[in-house]
Specification:
Layout lengths: L3 E19 L2 E15 L4 E5 L13 H19 L4 H8 L6 H18 L4 H5 L5 E3 L2 E3 L5 H14 L3 E5 L6 H10 L4 E5 L9 H10 L4 E3 L7 H8 L5 E4 L6 H9 L5 E4 L7 H14 L3 E3 L6 H11 L22 E2 L9 E3 L9 E2 L1 H7 E7 L5
Parallel strand pairs: 5-6, 6-7, 7-8, 8-9, 9-10, 10-11
Antiparallel strand pairs: 1-2, 1-15, 2-3, 4-13, 12-14
Helix pairs in contact: 1-3, 2-3, 5-6
Bound molecules: 2-succinylbenzoate and magnesium ion.
Amino acid sequence: MVRIVRAQLDELELPLVEPFETSFGVERRRRFLVLGIESEDGEVGLGECVATRDPLYSGESVVTARWMIETYLLPLLWREGALDPGTFREKARAWRGNEMAKAAVEMALWDLWARRHRQSLSRALGGRRRRVEVGVSVGIQPTVPALVRRVGEYLADGYRRVKIKVRPGWDVDAVAALRREFPDLRLWVDANQAYPAPAAGALRRWATKYRVEQVEQAFPEHALGAHARLARDARFRVCLDESITDSATLEAALEMRALTSLNVKAGRVGGLGAGRELGERARAAGFPAWVGGMLETGIGRAHNVALASLAPFTFPADLSASDRYYQPDIVDPPFVLGPGSTLAVPVGPGIGVNVVESTYRKHLRRHREFRPKTA
Ligand code: OSB
Ligand code: MG
């Protein structure tokens, strides 16, 4: 590995093409960090941090991730001088939690490593697929007819799997209407922890009746027992997202039989190396893994698509085309939906997409550069 001579930590804010509402709130604009790491031979690796402006999805936020990266993770890079992604992950394990901050650095190091080896990130990770199957995640809508209309538009665009956000009060009517209108729809729901454990009975009834294929994170992060009871004899898959932050939490959930499907977000679990391992563990346990999203721009999307090209990720990813999130995206080429509800896996070096400087600068809200003391 060559020496790392510079880092830049940028904060951007981009408007979403439409508001995205979940059980924990509405996002209209996404505020996030982008980390660039430069090696002495002039290559730059990029990582997008999935931490949000406010700590609503998990305990991390833009502020805590910035603090973690500036206080611990960049100094680690300067101390080591040169780091491959695997060694970075080992050394950063000393600090608890903060997986989103760690992931941003790890993913930038992967992009840098792959670029320096003139390989696509997918190939560097051991990916096989040239295209990955994707679906679309649809936020809570003002009314049920509006939801049916929105889903119809996404189906017309070519998406073949739809996940809707649910919460108490926005569930059975929404799911019933979608099933009535689209009898063959591959339908998933995601509650982002919104249900209390006693809601399991009602949830099981409507999910079964309306042939929901998968129920994601119905109960709070630490409520593995409630997820396990829901999974027992269920005709749908019980998927965990927020509950799984590393291999230890996955092992605990497996032991309790709290899941039959796994949402893997590299940005939530400390990076691509950890994401790959979690996918392999799910496969060994005999159930599907799939790649989730956090409304990333094309930078994070490219990392996620590379991860989704690996063998264990057999369920369609929550990675839609760029224009479903941002118009325009900050990368070129943007991600477009292709035949069979797929995105192409980039083949160029590293993440295989380039930042459009003018668009990036337009949305840049804060820029900081860091160098090792001796360089
Ligand atoms: O729980 O999967 C989630 C977006 C933001 C925060 C949490 C989640 C989501 C999504 C969107 O479902 C997935 C995407 O990026 O398309
Ligand atoms: Mg989720």
